[in-house]
Design brief:
binds flavin mononucleotide, 379 residues, eight-stranded parallel barrel, TIM Barrel, single chain, globular
Length: 379
């Protein structure tokens, strides 16, 4: 089975198997962006199963770009917390990858500083109640790119094996590529190639900061299902440009790998994702074809069994990232490995106290998970 075989990334690092813990925000960090013990325990218990790699929850690179109260990789004060996080992720020999992000127009207004929400353009998100951001200045854009690079330097100093740029799920990097969110007419917008510039500059800054021997990954939403959004063809062009940089993998973010659905901007709020357009061929296959072996392809969305993992690999993925299945069952991979899939927990227990204690999920994360009905199955 391919899923249990190793793979060597372009940078030379080897991943022992193809299973990866997907980035999972716990919404449970301290106000200063450091990780509390219960967040480390959440990660460590899941990593202990022997995943090839574990990707962290998304760490903010600038204070004003926070979309929740999560971990930070914004200054030296975060270094010792990042160190502890890398150690927890690596406890069972997994590669530890730090995901980094900026919220742009979907940062939480109450978490931003005096100057408020900033984004590529002064266009509000489709999320209900979204506030209109102000358009970033060219200096702010240059500073944000540098902040991604500095976050990658912190990751290197903290002992991570690599960094994943969160270019998906409607956060700032995605917003720059989106014709819905980016109405600029300077170097950062106006044509598709200019809308790519931010993503490419961030990828280059991260690679420069990491040096050649650490893993650099990029997560992308393969198309926007909202009207006037970017198409799968647009995203393939971006992917082709990204693959020319020294990346180690491109991760395709889907809600369900079989249905090829990406996350809509409003999905988790109004459940309207169901009717989204589905391309004839899986975006995983299309991306694999464009990338053509220049770096690895990671797939995610609804991977619940070893057969799912193998099916995503058959579609063209090299790696699979597993999210909700490991939230619900911390021992998911051990059960898959020992062919005891029948004993995998299929949903969160009814009793909320049991969720936190039995599954090592921080109480604030439990609230967060339960705040969006239908997001995570219940027993
Ligand atoms: C609680 C939770 C937190 C998440 N946090 C992040 C995150 O920080 N960064 C990210 O790229 N995706 C995040 N995601 C999306 C997952 O990484 C994954 O792509 C998605 O849940 C689909 O895969 P799954 O069906 O295996 O859960 C999160 C998902 C969940 C359920």
């Amino acid at each position: 089975m391919v899923a249990w075989s190793s793979l060597r990334f372009n940078c030379g690092q080897e991943i022992a198997n193809r299973f990866v813990v997907a980035p999972l925000t716990t919404d449970s960090s301290h106000e200063d962006g450091t990780a509390p013990d219960n967040e480390l325990e959440f990660v460590q218990r899941r990593a202990a199963n022997g995943f090839g790699a574990v990707i962290s929850s998304a760490a903010y690179v600038e204070y004003d770009g926070r979309s929740w109260q999560g971990i930070g990789a914004a200054h030296d004060g975060h270094l010792s917390s990042l160190h502890r996080l890398a150690d927890a992720m690596r406890a069972a020999g997994s590669l530890a990858i730090l995901q980094i992000y900026d919220g742009g127009r979907i940062a939480r207004p109450e978490l931003t500083g005096e100057r408020g929400l900033r984004a590529p353009s002064a266009v509000a998100s489709l999320r209900p109640g979204a506030k209109t951001p102000r358009a970033m200045t060219s200096d702010e854009i240059a500073k944000l790119i540098a902040s991604f690079g500095e976050a990658a330097s912190l990751a290197r100093k903290a002992g991570f094996d690599g960094v994943e740029i969160h270019g998906a799920n409607h956060y700032a990097v995605h917003q720059f590529f989106s014709p819905r969110a980016n109405h600029r007419v300077d170097d950062w917008g106006g044509t598709i190639s200019k809308r790519m510039n931010f993503a490419l500059a961030v990828a280059q800054a991260v690679r420069d900061a990491l040096g050649p021997k650490l893993i650099a990954g990029f997560r992308v939403t393969p198309f926007e299902s909202e009207a006037d959004g970017y198409t799968l063809e647009d995203a393939k062009l971006l992917c082709n440009e990204l693959a020319k940089l020294d990346l180690d993998y491109i991760s395709v973010s889907l809600d369900d790998y079989r249905k090829s659905k990406p996350m809509r901007e409003t999905r988790v709020y109004d459940g309207s994702g169901e009717e989204s357009y589905t391309p004839a061929e899986s975006p995983i296959t299309e991306f694999a074809r464009v990338i053509a072996g220049r770096c690895a392809v990671m797939a995610s969305g609804g991977i619940k069994t070893c057969m799912d993992a193998e099916a995503a690999i058959d579609m063209g993925a090299d790696l699979v990232a597993v999210g909700r299945a490991v939230v619900v069952d911390p021992e998911w991979l051990s059960k898959v490995r020992s062919k005891s899939e029948a004993s995998i927990l299929a949903g969160l227990p009814k009793d909320e106290r049991e969720i936190a204690n039995a599954l090592s999920i921080p109480p604030r994360m439990v609230e967060y998970l339960l705040s969006r009905p239908g997001w995570i199955p219940r027993l």
